[in-house]
Specification:
Domain Glycosyltransferase subfamily 4-like N-terminal: 487-652
Helix content: 55-70%
Keywords: Glycosyltransferase, Membrane, Transferase, Transmembrane, Transmembrane helix
Strand content: 5-15%
Protein name: D-inositol 3-phosphate glycosyltransferase
Structural class: alpha/beta
Shape: elongated
Transmembrane segments: 16-42, 48-71, 92-114, 120-140, 152-172, 227-248, 260-283, 303-325, 331-356, 365-383, 389-407, 419-438, 444-461
Oligomer: single chain
InterPro entries: Glyco_trans_1, Glyco_trans_4-like_N
Length: 845
């Protein structure tokens, strides 16, 4: 199956301008038609027309956001004339027919109490044609025929306007105006179906394709159910005030001013609909965690342009409103502020819920939408007697839903705070916005200020803010690689970051304090210990860890303001794993996971670290794992996150280390620690093996359990057979590995197994316990694994290998090819690409 079209560069979608222009034209046409009908129809007829057209707006929005987007995805992904494309087209046709019947029944039942037979019949016909029209629209969207799609949308409105004016002039009233919906949709339905006639006429696929078709059909239904469910609730949310009030009051003409002003207040909804239509295919094609820049750009445009429109509408003077509204409606202008707020909140919900329609899951927005619809409907029934109370109730309900859904979208797309990317332009326009309110008593001056605000918003939308300077990374790295006992995680952090710095990135790594730690720049990477002045408490590793996490949780906004990063990177670290960094900043966040620490540390300290780890995992949308099994665990624990496996690397110097003076000793290299590294297990196993082998044990490294380990060696009577080499760095580290007959890795658990990988690169075999992470590295061709914790088996294998140099040489010779792919340059490039994808950067700055 051929891949879909390549995504457009960030910030640009092919055909977006044409589609947006068409959507704006459609919105203006609908708006102008509604204003014309305010003057042409009697108040009682306009009340019926407005209530029924609100229902049709829900039907049209639902039809436009389900079938077209589902079909567009299938059309874009499938080869022309393929069986899967034919199946998708036919399935969506049947889906549209079924939904048209269902919505017609529900819609007609909803309006029957206050609408006569003519409006009800027109509503039923419109439901059928609107749904069928959506199939052709989805097909054109999938083929990227945006100009044709935009022309059909404009043509539909043009036909509707002509038919509306003709039928109203003929005296058909609300029934004629509503029947024009069906007429306009029928014309564009015919044009749309003509575009997909080849797929409709194609022959059935071969039987070999049936299994694939069944699978694609199942996925299509699931996708349609998710989109349709969300869109249905959204439509109910922002139309239920009119529908409920009209039902309670029996179509009273007293609601006409409310409905007429609502048309004006919903102008931002047209913009949000256009933005949602444009950004959805990009989100769907990119997948969870990607495509975020396009959504952030759309949200920024909504804040700026939609906000300017909302303020302008809310402050509109009566004299200006009187140019487009009859005099009897301008007396109700006090309704404009709450209705404008409700319209802007509804537009926000329309745009934000696109994330969940494209990626899922639906529940984070379905639950608040459903609750709001139920509570809002009950509140509207109570408030319907007073239009001001009804308007403020609608504003409160929709605003609450907008806040909740925006907060949940922020977890999926980092950097989408309430003013993401728009704070500067909005701040610049704030004085003019305030002027609108002050100048409301002076219509001429207000008009000039309104034009200034709208022009400024248009300029801000067209501009794309880009901060000058290099790409900036704020890395919450936890552990300084210079600290005694530092592990492989800090090595990875430095090896990747120094390569990013060589590419021109500005990298700052925040680490926990340690005795003698100072802010420094190493290989172009700036290390900052925080808190900077912990005093004697820095000697305690646990205390410094807790202090570091306290700084991250309480001062991350300050760090972000100071360093202004394009991306924030959180290294998962003991004892919590993650402290929910995505909840603490609006900047894009990537989590780097080498191990999930909470269960081990909870047993060690008897504290509920697991609850913090679960919440931290749930907060992330992009996670980088160092191994396949860890990646699968992360996907299982956070299915909504995008998980990418990028392993640790091996320094190129390891492959060229000299083995000319290979000895007959065994080597332990790493952190002198017992809880995870199992140094105590090695010493006990070596004590069992020592009487049967002449190989001494060399131990290189430093760490918190160095004194305890030395004491244990003495207690076991091994003081003269165990040689303590201290910390070894640089090329000497690889010469040390290459000079041993066997490298022992006795870890109880491992994040990756960097020492094992480096040993294999030098051509030295590895003896390890059979645990995850090491299992993938230490295969039977390059080393030996024994059951975890089995000291007798470890001792026996150590004895056998040290007494068989030929076998050790054969195993060691197979090592370098198995880790040749662990190249730091390649790994840094993959991590750099992940950063740029999440932050939406285009190219290297």
């Amino acid at each position: 199956m051929p891949a879909g079209p390549a995504p457009a560069p960030a910030g640009r979608v092919p055909g977006a301008l044409l589609l947006t222009a068409a959507t704006v034209a459609v919105g203006l046409g609908n708006y102008g038609l509604s204003l014309l009908l305010v003057r042409l129809l009697a108040p009682s007829d306009f009340t019926v027309y407005s209530a029924v057209s609100s229902v049709l707006l829900s039907v049209g929005t639902l039809a436009g956001a389900t079938v077209p987007w589902v079909l567009a995805r299938e059309v874009a992904a499938c080869a022309p004339g393929g069986a899967r494309r034919r199946r998708a087209v036919r399935s969506c046709l049947w889906l549209a027919l079924g939904l048209s019947l269902a919505t017609a029944v529900v819609a007609c039942a909803a309006v029957a109490p206050y609408a006569g037979p003519g409006p009800v019949a027109a509503l039923a016909a419109a439901c059928l044609t609107i749904w069928l029209n959506s199939v052709g629209a989805g097909y054109l969207q999938g083929r990227e025929h945006f100009a044709r799609l935009g022309a059909l949308r404009v043509g539909e409105v043009a036909v509707r306007i002509v038919v509306t004016v003709a039928t109203v002039a003929a005296g058909w009233g609300a029934a004629g105006a509503l029947g024009a919906f069906a007429a306009g949709a029928a014309v564009t339905t015919a044009a749309g179906l003509a575009a997909l006639r080849r797929d409709l006429a194609a022959e059935e696929a071969e039987e070999a394709a049936e299994a694939e078709e069944a699978g694609s059909r199942s996925g299509l239904w699931r996708h349609a159910a998710r989109i349709g469910g969300i869109q249905l609730l959204v439509c109910v949310l922002f139309t239920s005030d009119v529908v409920v009030a009209a039902s309670v009051r029996g179509g009273s003409a007293d609601l006409a001013p409310y409905q007429a002003l609502l048309v004006l207040a919903r102008v931002p909804l047209f913009l949000a609909t256009a933005l949602a239509t444009v950004v959805f295919p990009r989100l769907a094609a990119a997948g969870p965690g990607a495509g975020g820049e396009g959504f952030r750009t759309a949200l920024r445009q909504h804040w700026i342009a939609g906000g300017a429109l909302t303020v302008t509408i809310a402050t509109c003077p009566g004299a200006v409103a009187g140019l487009v509204l009859p005099e009897q409606y301008t007396a109700s202008l006090a309704l404009l502020p709450p209705l404008a707020l409700a319209g802007f909140a509804s537009a926000t919900v329309v745009l934000v819920t696109v994330v969940f329609q494209a990626w899922g899951p639906a529940r984070p927005v379905v639950v608040p939408l459903a609750v709001a619809c139920l509570l809002g409907g009950a509140g509207y029934a109570v408030a319907s007697a007073s239009p001001p109370a009804l308007a403020w109730s609608a504003a409160a309900v929709t605003s609450a839903v907008a806040v909740v859904t925006l907060g949940r979208a922020r977890r999926r797309v980092p950097g989408t705070g309430p003013l993401a990317g728009a704070l500067g332009p909005l701040a610049a326009g704030a004085p003019a916005c305030c002027a609108l309110l002050a100048l409301r008593p002076y219509p001429a001056l207000w008009t000039g200020a309104a034009l200034t605000v709208l022009a400024g918003a248009a300029a801000a939308v067209r501009s794309r803010p880009r901060r000058p300077g290099p790409y900036r990374v704020l890395h919450l790295g936890f552990e300084d690689p210079r600290r005694p006992g530092a592990g492989g995680g800090s090595v990875r952090t430095h090896e990747v970051n120094r390569r990013l710095a060589a590419r021109g990135a500005e990298v700052t790594v925040v680490v926990a304090p340690w005795p003698g730690a100072t802010a420094t720049v190493r290989d172009g990477v700036r290390y900052v210990p925080l808190p900077a002045h912990l005093g004697p408490l820095a000697r305690s590793r646990f205390t410094s860890q807790i202090a570091y996490f306290a700084v991250v949780v309480t001062r991350l906004p300050w760090l972000v303001r100071r360093h202004d990063p394009d991306i924030v990177v959180e290294d998962f670290a003991a004892p919590f794993s993650s402290v929910c960094v995505p909840y603490l900043t609006r900047r894009p966040v990537v989590g780097v996971v080498q191990w999930l620490f909470a269960s081990e540390k909870a047993r060690e300290f008897h504290l509920p670290f697991g609850a913090v780890e679960r919440r931290g995992l749930a907060s992330h949308t992009t996670l980088l794992a160092v191994g396949d099994d860890l990646g699968e665990e992360l996907r299982g624990r956070n299915p909504a996150a995008r998980v990418q496996v990028i392993p640790n690397g091996v320094d190129a110097a390891a492959f060229t280390a000299s083995a000319a003076r290979r000895g007959d000793h065994v080597l332990y290299l790493g952190r002198l620690e017992t809880t995870s590294k199992g140094l105590d297990l090695l010493l006990r196993a070596y004590a069992l093996a020592a009487p049967h082998t002449s190989a001494d044990l060399h131990i290189a490294g430093d760490g918190p359990d160095a004194r305890t380990a030395r004491a244990l060696a003495a207690d076991l009577g091994m003081a003269d057979r165990v040689h303590w080499l201290g910390r070894v760095e640089g090329p000497a580290r690889f010469d040390l590995l290459a000079g041993a007959r066997l490298v022992c890795v006795p870890s109880r658990y491992e994040t990756f197994g960097m020492v094992a990988a480096e040993a294999l690169a030098t051509g030295t075999p590895v003896l390890a316990f059979d645990i995850p992470r090491l299992r993938d590295l230490v295969t039977d061709t390059v080393g030996v694994r024994v059951p975890p914790g089995d000291l007798d088996a470890y001792a026996a294998t150590l004895t056998a290998l040290t007494r068989d140099p030929a076998r050790c040489a054969a195993l060691g010779a197979q090592g370098p090819p198995t880790v040749a792919h662990l190249d730091w340059d390649r790994i840094a490039a993959a991590q750099w690409a992940a950063y740029k994808r999440v932050s939406g950067a285009v190219g290297e700055r």
